[in-house]
Amino acid sequence: GVHLPNIHQGRWRETRAGRLSILRAGTVTFSGRRQWVGEFLKSSKFDVVIGGVIMCNAATIGLEQAYRGSGIYKDVFAACEHVFLSIYMLELLARFYAFGSACFKDSWVLFDMFLVTLGVLTQWVIQPLFGSIDEIGQIGR
């Protein structure tokens, strides 16, 4: 998982408004639920889980490439891509829920946001409208 340096240096404080705000010296205020989500995202357990997801995703991409020409398991690999993208999107949404606009100050979160946006555009917008890259390539031949 990605950690936000400003949030690690700050102290947790409950506020009535329940909004995230970065104050002097990196102090962060949260509502109870946002604090719990933020602490969960910063935990080593979450890092292990999301690391396992990334490893499984990498293995799935490798297997998909090995079976690409045969068409075997094509639907299984497509389903896996949707599951992984959903997990990454939920992680990103949880970060914005917990840390708000502070996420825009973390280059790793911005990189994750770029990758998730590309994934959403290709998997959930372009492919349903125009088909997969393999199908588009066949049209041009």
Structure summarized in a few sentences:
By secondary structure, the chain is mainly α. It is built from 6 helices and 3 strands; from the N terminus they run H-E-E-E-H-H-H-H-H. The chain has a 3-stranded mixed sheet.
Q: Can you tell me about this structure?
A:
- With 141 residues, the chain is mainly alpha-helical.
- The protein is built from six helices and three strands; from the N terminus they run H-E-E-E-H-H-H-H-H.
- It has helices spanning 5-9, 32-42, 44-66, 74-99, 107-130, 133-139, and strands spanning 12-14, 21-22, 28-30.
- The chain has a three-stranded mixed β-sheet.
- Helix 2 crosses helix 4 and helix 3 (44-66) runs antiparallel to helix 4.
- The protein is elongated and about 50 Å long.
- The model is unreliable at 1-27 (pLDDT under 50).
- Which structural class best describes the helix and strand composition? mainly alpha
Oligomer: single chain
Major sheet details = 3 strands, mixed
Beta-strand residue fraction: 5-15%
Shape estimate: elongated
Counting DSSP E segments of at least 2 residues, the number of strands comes to 3
Helix fraction bin: 55-70%
SSE topology sketch:
Blueprint: H1 5-9, E1 12-14, E2 21-22, E3 28-30, H2 32-42, H3 44-66, H4 74-99, H5 107-130, H6 133-139
List descriptors.
mainly alpha; 3 strands; elongated; disordered N terminus; 141 residues
